[in-house]
Design a protein that fits this description.
It is a single chain. This protein is an alpha+beta fold. Helix content is about 20%, strand content about 40%. It is built from four helices and seven strands. The longest helix has 11 residues.
Length: about 160
Amino acid sequence: MTAGAGDSPEDFSALQGRAMGRDGIEQLLGERGIGVLSLAADGTPYGIPMSFGYDSEDGDHRLFTLFAGHSEEGRKVRYAEQSEVASFLTFDVDDDGGWRSAIVSGAFERITPDEWETAREAMADNAYRPQLLTNTNVQEDPRVWMLDIEEMAGRAIGQA
């Protein structure tokens, strides 16, 4: 019996899933609320599990993260301040083995107080722990950062 294309043990294309369209990526970003923020400082990468809010109003696509709590060395803030761009990964895995993942990237910066309401609404809609927002005074300590999405990609297996 001859193996067909894609059937060889060396062919991993079936594990890579299919590319998701923009609508599928935006749906995943709007549903998940948790993922991994990747930053770099001085050539050293740093991945941070983060809760996030996604906003796509007016044709802009933005992801907001709140830096709640501080480590003694302030590593998150130090990396964020040194990173002009960032990437963010979110994913979803089903019990039956299906999965979806999306990676977005773009400019990364601390929000201004004028952007607080948009950020607060986005995080209240889908962040993993929106109650963290109640302890944040953006006027005194704006620890909310925005990733202005310039690129997005996603893949899926077994999900629409």
